[in-house]
Amino acid sequence: MDILVVLENNKGAIHRMSLEAIVAAQKLAAEQNLSNALLALGADTGALASAAAIYDTGEVLTVEHNLLSVYNSDGYAAALRQVIDQEKPSYVFFGHTYMVRDYVPKISAQLQRPFLCDVISLNTTAGLTFAKQAFNAKLAVDLGVASEGTVLVSFQSASFNADLISSGSAQIREVAVELDETVIKTTSEEPFQEEAGGVDLTAAEIIISVGRGIGKEENLPIAEALAQAIGGEISSSRPVVDSGWLPSFRQIGSSGQTVSPKLYFALGISGAIQHVVGMKGSKNIVAINKDAEAPIFELADYGVVGDLLEIVPKLTEAILAAKN
Amino acid sequence: MKLCVLVKQVPGSESALRIASGNTWIEDAAALFEMNESDNYALEEALRIKESLGNDSEVVVVSMGPERVQKVIREALSKGADRGIHINEMPEIKSDPFATAQVFANVIKDENFDLIFSGLQSDDVGSGQTGVILGEMLGMATATLVMATEVQEGSIKVKRELESGWFQWVSMSTPASITIQSGINQPRYPSLKGIMGAKKKEMKVVDPSTAVTPEKQQSFANIYLPTADKKTEMIEGNVDQMVSRLVDVLKTEIKVL
C-alpha cells in the first residue's frame, strides 16, 4: 500500500479536513501512479466506511474495537500503529486536526518515523516534497525526511479543496487489531460545549475581526462602530479572547470558528497560522496592520499599512457618509 | 511534586527574520528572541500548581539552545521556578521534534518528574510534537491543548480543547506530559525581588553530545519566503487618500455598500 488516509469521525460524518487529505492523496496517487486506501477506526465504523466507499480509492479499511468508542490517544495510537505494521503504507495522511495533534506524535515516537505536520502543499516535480509554514507563517519550508520508511503527514485546513474529491466505488475490508485496557493511560469524559448559544459567525456576510493590534480593550468600540456602520459581525483572533476582551464564541481560527464571508476585515491581525486557517476561505480580505511584514498581507486582497486607530474611525465616518 | 517546564526561546512576533546562508534556518543575529508564548502559559500553570501544593514541590525549567537561552531560563527563575537546566544546542536537530525529544528524555530521565509541561507548539518550528513524544519516550501519559488542570496526589485531570468551542476532561495518573494552550491563565510578571533572587538559583549546563546521539527523522531542507497566492492591492497615500480608496473598493469592487 502506498498512501493510507486516516478518516476522522466528526459527529457521524467524515471530517472536512479528512476529505481534504483524501484530495491530497488522490493528487499524489495520480501524479506518481500510487495506490491509496482510506481507514475508518472506532467502535462502530459502518457509517463512516460507507461514506468513504463512494470516493476514488483502492479500498476502505475499517478497524473496530470497543476501546475506541470514546477517543483516547493511547488506544488510537496503538490501533493505527498496528495497521501501519500490517499494511506498511509509504505515507499516512491526516487532516491536521486537534485530535491528530494529540495522538499522531505518539505513533511517531513508537515507530521512530517522522511526522510531517501542518503541511500546506506537496510537490512532485522532483521526487516528493512536503512544505509547511514556519516562524509564525512568515517563512515557508520544504521538509526533508532522513530515512526510508513510513512517513506520517498531516495537512493544514484548506490546503486542499474538498470540493475536488474524485468519486468512485471501493470495497470495505476489516483489519484486526489487538488492544487491551492496559495500553490506555487516560480516562476521557464526554466532550461538552462552553458558551453555547453564541453567535454563528459562519452565517455572517461581513466580518470585522480584531487582533492584538487593537492594543487595548478600550479601543474595541472603534471596531464595533465600523461593524455597525457596514452591517457586520465582530470577531477576533485568539489573543483578544485570551485577554478577556471578547467572548470565545467570537473567535476565528483553529480553536474557534471557520468562516468564509463575502468580506473579512482583519484589523491589527498579524496572520498567524492558527487564525488564518479559520478565515482564508473569505471571498474578500481587507487587512489593516502597522507591520508591513505581517503575513496577513500575503493573504489579503487589499492591504493598508498604517495605524488602525487612526484609519478605522475615519473609514467608519466615510462609510456612513457614503450610505447617506 | 516535581514539575518540569520545557521552555523555548524563539524570535518574537515583531522580530525581523532573515534567512541564513544555506537556507535551513534564520540569522540569529538579526532576530529578537523571547520566551515562546505558550511556554509562558505552561510555566505559569506549573508555578500555580507548585504554589497550591506547598513548599516541598519544585519547578525545574529546561531549555535547549545556544547560550542566549539562559535568558529565558533566568526569566522563569525570576518568576518563581526553582532551578534551571540549559541543554547546549545541537544545531543539526533543531527542526526535528523526535530527535529533540530524545535529547530531552536523555537529560531529564533521572529527574523522575511527576509532571512535564510544555507549550502546545513553538512559534518557530511549530511542530507541536516534542512534549508528546518526550512523554511517550519516558512511558508517561500525555494530553495536549490543555485549558485547565486539577492536580491531586498521584493524578491529574485536564480540560482539553477540542475544535469549534468543544472541550473534554481527561484524567490520568502521574507521571504525565501535558501541553498547554495559550490563554489557560494570566501569566505573571517577575517581581524585583524575584529578579534579584533568580541570580542565586542553580542553572546547570548540560552538553548532550557526549551522552546521546539523536536519530534525526526530519529537517528543514529549504527555507524561503512564501509566495503570495493572491495579488494584493496595497492601498497607499495619506490617511484620507487610503480611506477614500477603501470606500471605493467597498462600493465598486466588493459591492457591500
Topology readout:
The complex is a heterodimer of chains A (324) and B (257).
Chain A: E1 3-7, E2 9-10, E3 13-14, H1 16-32, E4 36-42, H2 46-52, E5 59-64, H3 73-87, E6 91-95, H4 98-111, E7 115-123, E8 129-134, E9 139-145, E10 151-155, E11 171-174, E12 186-188, E13 192-193, E14 206-210, H5 220-230, E15 233-236, H6 238-242, E16 263-267, H7 273-276, E17 284-289, H8 296-299, E18 302-305, H9 308-323
Parallel strand pairs in A: 1-4, 1-6, 4-5, 5-11, 6-10, 7-10, 14-15, 14-16, 16-17, 17-18
Antiparallel strand pairs in A: 2-3, 7-8, 8-9
Helix pairs in contact in A: 3-4, 5-9
Chain B: E1 2-6, E2 9-11, E3 33-35, H1 37-53, E4 58-65, H2 70-79, E5 83-88, H3 97-108, E6 115-119, H4 130-137, E7 141-152, E8 155-161, E9 166-173, E10 176-180, H5 192-198, E11 203-206, E12 218-224, E13 233-235, H6 239-253
Parallel strand pairs in B: 1-4, 1-6, 4-5, 5-11, 6-10, 7-10
Antiparallel strand pairs in B: 2-3, 7-8, 8-9
Could you walk me through the main structural features you see in this protein, from its secondary elements to its overall organization?
- The complex is a heterodimer of chains A (324) and B (257).
- Chain A is elongated and about 65 Å long.
- Helix content of chain A is 29%, strand content 27%.
- In chain A, the strands form 3 sheets. In chain A, strands 9-8-7-10-6-1-4-5-11 form a 9-stranded mixed sheet, sandwiched between helices.
- Chain A has 2 domains: 3-183, HUPs (Rossmann fold, 3-Layer(aba) Sandwich), CATH 3.40.50.620; 201-323, Rossmann fold, CATH 3.40.50.1220.
- Chain A has 9 helices and 18 strands.
- Chain B has 257 residues and is α/β, with parallel strands linked by helices.
- Chain B folds into 2 domains: 2-210, Rossmann fold; 227-257, no CATH class.
- In chain B, the strands form 2 sheets. A 9-stranded mixed sheet of chain B has the order 9-8-7-10-6-1-4-5-11, with helices on both faces.
- In chain B, α3 packs across α4 (130-137).
- The termini of chain B are far apart.
- The mean pLDDT of chain B is 95.
- Chains A and B meet through α4, β7, β8, β9 and β12 of A and α3, α4, β7, β9 and β12 of B.
